[in-house]
Design goal:
Strands 1, 2, 3, 4, 5 and 13 form a six-stranded mixed sheet that branches. Strands 9-8-10-7-11 form a five-stranded mixed sheet, sandwiched between helices. It has a two-stranded antiparallel ribbon with strand order 6-12. It has two domains: about 240 residues, D-Maltodextrin-Binding Protein, domain 2; about 110 residues, D-Maltodextrin-Binding Protein, domain 2. The protein contains 17 helices and 13 strands. It starts with 14 loop residues before the first helix and ends with a helix. α12 crosses α13. The protein is globular and about 60 Å long. It is α/β, with parallel strands linked by helices.
Length: about 375
């Protein structure tokens, strides 16, 4: 998969943080070059050419385990089968991708629901949440509220109420990440207004835990396991997000830009390849089939380069049909309105377009 130097507006993961936790910051091995064209350009084949043109699709990625569908699809040629070359570009969080999706610098991104997304759509930027790209559910709790290990070991924090007045980090404010923290706290009788929220990138969270600058964080894999292995974070039953969201927490979705979604055939082909990759991921981590090869792909495309680490890692839930857990996003929307963050007319019905995932699932057939 090809990587690039991001523009000024893009937040890049800290190389120093990765080095401190023993995670490689080396760029993934590039794939062989292929003829590419930008989305929206004339992609009709040249009769004189001996090889078909490939349409380049730029994907905004947090380099998380939940990006596995894209990584597997690219590595195994599923996107090329659909005439696509997916280029993954690193971003800190979902809200950071919104300007790039709006300006046409990205066609597709992964990220959480946020006020930035709602405001963009209200301003007439036609972004669409089209498929699942990471959920936490029992057995796949890849997004958790982790607590500084010394606080748990010493007994300073025994339950949710002991987090009152403490500093908790989130990748982005006024987003699903903040709502997740709020609902986890609420289960223990604590209001989000009784703690201090601090926005930090995931690698920065690991450093902040080590420096005792934060007490807890909404942190996802692979940063979660990296922090645990360094002895600076512990996971605990009370920090599991799925319980706070009725069994499934929708941590991230695939988001299409308006221009990309309008190119129905192209957008459908992307989704077919993506879900093919997601199903291979489920084969590996739900059924245990072909796991070693999928782990190899993840080690080559995420900061976690040690295959053994995937044995104990909290893997992401990925729906084989791309279905979004709407009830989870409804709780996020309710939180935004309760906090006074959003009072506009945008609804989930206008944000979510399941047609691309439904088409792809139909083309691939039932997942068994």
């Amino acid at each position: 998969m090809r990587w690039w130097t991001p523009p000024r507006w893009q937040v890049v993961a800290l190389v120093g943080a990765l080095a401190l936790v023993g995670v490689s910051a080396e760029a993934p091995r590039p794939l062989a070059a292929a003829p590419t064209v930008l989305v929206g350009a004339d992609s009709s084949p040249d009769p004189a050419s001996t090889s078909p043109q490939i349409t380049r699709v730029r994907f905004g990625s947090p380099q998380a385990i939940s990006d596995a569908g894209v990584f597997i699809g690219q590595e195994r040629g599923y996107f090329r089968e659909q005439g696509l070359d997916v280029e993954a570009l690193p971003f800190q969080s979902g809200p950071d991708t919104i300007p790039a999706l709006a300006s046409g610098e990205l066609e597709v991104a992964g990220g959480t629901i946020s006020i930035a997304l709602l405001n963009a759509v209200e301003r007439g930027i036609p972004l669409k949440m089209v498929a699942d790209k990471g959920n936490s559910r029992p057995g796949f709790e890849f997004s958790q509220l982790g607590v500084r290990r010394d606080l748990l070991d010493s007994g300073a924090v025994r339950d949710i109420l002991d987090l009152r007045g403490r500093r908790i980090a989130v990748a982005s404010l006024r987003s699903g990440a903040e709502a997740q923290v709020a609902y986890v706290l609420r289960r223990g009788g604590l209001d989000v207004g009784e703690i201090e929220l601090t926005p930090l990138g995931y690698p920065e969270m690991i450093l902040a835990f080590g420096n005792r600058a934060i007490d807890a964080a909404n942190i996802i894999e692979p940063s979660l396991s990296a922090a645990v292995s360094q002895g600076v974070v512990s996971t605990w039953e009370q920090g599991r997000s799925s319980a706070a969201f009725g069994g499934v927490y929708q941590a991230a979705t695939i988001v299409y830009s308006g221009q990309f979604a309008a190119q129905t055939d192209l957008a459908r082909r992307f989704m077919v390849a993506y879900l093919k990759g997601v199903r291979a991921y489920n084969d590996a981590f739900v059924r245990g089939e072909g796991q070693s090869d999928v782990v190899r792909i993840l080690t080559e495309n995420t900061p976690v380069r040690n295959p053994a680490a995937y044995t104990d890692m909290n893997m992401a839930g990925l729906d084989p049909d791309g279905r979004i857990a709407v009830q989870s996003l409804q709780l996020d929307m309710a939180y935004f309105r309760q906090q006074g963050y959003y009072s506009g007319p945008i609804t989930l019905e206008s944000l979510i377009d399941p047609s691309f995932a439904e088409y792809a699932a139909q083309q691939l057939g039932p997942y068994r």
